[in-house]
Task: inverse folding
C-alpha cells in the first residue's frame, strides 16, 4: 500500500506554482513520481453579424489561447520541480473533468485544489469536483485553501460504514500508517450501540495494518453530523480528513447538503475522498 504515482491537476486560469509545490513535496516524501495535468476546451460563442466563419474563428482563437496557456503551465511545472526525472507532463484540449478522469488511470492519487464556496465553475476550463469524485476511480486529495504541506500526523476518519468510506480507509493507508493520532469518528443519529460496534471493527482492522487508532462515537440525533465531525477535526487539529464521497445520491446531496458537500466546503483541512 503505497503511492507510486501522484497526479496533480492544475487549472488553466489559476496560479499554478503553490499547488505544484504542494504536490511535489508530497511526492518526494512518498518517493513517488509526479504527473502534472491540465485540460481546457473551447466552447461555442454566438457570433454577431452575418459572417458564417465568425463562430469557427472564435473557437480557433480559443484553442490557440488554451494551447499557449498549457505551454506556459508546462514550463512552470518543470521549473518548479527543478527538471527532476521523476516527473512528467500531460495536457489535453478537451473537457477538464472528462480528460482528468481518463488520465487518472495512470496514477494512484489525484491532487486537486479546494472548490469555490458556491461550487460553481466554468466546466470548459475547470474541473467539476463532484463529478470527478464519482468518476475517477481513484482517491482524490483535495488540498486545503492554504496549500500548507500535508503532514497527516493527526487524521480524522469520518466513518459511517458505507462502501465509499471503506474504500477511502484503504486508499488512505499510506497516510494512516505514519500518522501519530488517528480517530475513527462516527456522528450517528440512530443506534449508538451499533455505531460503537462498527467503530471497534474499524480500529481493529487498522491495528492489523499497523495503524493505532481510537474511536469516537458522537450522538447526532439533534445536530448536523457534518458540523459535529468538523468540530472534532478542529479539536484534534486534524490536518487530514478521510471520507467517502456521496454515499447518497449526488442529486440529493446537492439539494439538501450532506457530509461530503459540507466537508468539501471546509477549506482549512486537507481531505482525502474516495467513491
Result:
Amino acid at each position: 500500500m503505497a503511492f507510486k504515482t501522484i497526479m496533480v491537476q492544475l487549472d488553466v486560469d489559476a496560479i499554478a506554482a503553490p499547488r505544484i509545490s504542494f504536490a511535489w513535496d508530497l511526492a518526494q516524501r512518498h518517493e513517488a513520481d509526479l504527473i502534472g495535468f491540465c485540460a481546457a476546451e473551447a466552447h461555442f460563442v454566438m457570433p454577431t453579424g452575418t459572417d458564417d466563419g465568425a463562430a469557427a474563428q472564435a473557437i480557433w482563437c480559443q484553442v490557440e489561447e488554451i494551447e499557449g496557456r498549457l505551454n506556459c503551465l508546462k514550463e512552470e511545472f518543470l521549473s518548479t520541480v527543478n527538471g527532476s526525472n521523476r516527473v512528467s507532463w500531460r495536457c489535453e484540449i478537451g473537457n477538464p473533468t472528462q480528460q482528468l478522469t481518463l488520465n487518472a488511470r495512470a496514477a494512484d492519487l489525484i491532487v486537486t485544489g479546494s472548490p469555490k464556496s458556491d461550487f460553481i465553475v466554468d466546466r470548459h476550463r475547470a474541473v467539476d469536483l463532484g463529478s470527478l469524485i464519482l468518476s475517477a476511480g481513484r482517491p482524490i486529495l483535495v488540498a486545503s485553501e492554504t496549500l500548507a504541506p500535508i503532514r497527516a500526523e493527526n487524521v480524522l476518519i469520518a466513518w459511517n460504514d458505507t462502501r465509499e468510506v471503506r474504500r477511502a480507509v484503504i486508499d488512505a493507508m499510506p497516510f494512516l500508517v505514519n500518522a501519530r493520532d488517528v480517530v475513527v469518528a462516527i456522528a450517528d443519529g440512530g443506534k449508538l450501540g451499533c455505531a460503537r460496534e462498527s467503530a471497534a471493527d474499524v480500529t481493529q482492522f487498522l491495528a492489523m495494518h499497523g495503524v493505532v487508532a481510537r474511536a469516537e462515537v458522537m450522538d447526532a440525533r439533534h445536530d448536523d453530523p457534518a458540523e459535529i465531525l468538523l468540530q472534532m477535526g478542529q479539536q484534534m487539529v486534524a490536518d487530514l480528513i478521510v471520507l467517502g464521497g456521496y454515499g447518497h445520491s449526488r442529486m440529493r446531496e446537492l439539494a439538501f447538503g450532506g457530509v461530503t458537500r459540507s466537508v468539501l466546503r471546509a477549506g482549512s483541512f486537507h481531505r482525502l475522498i474516495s467513491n
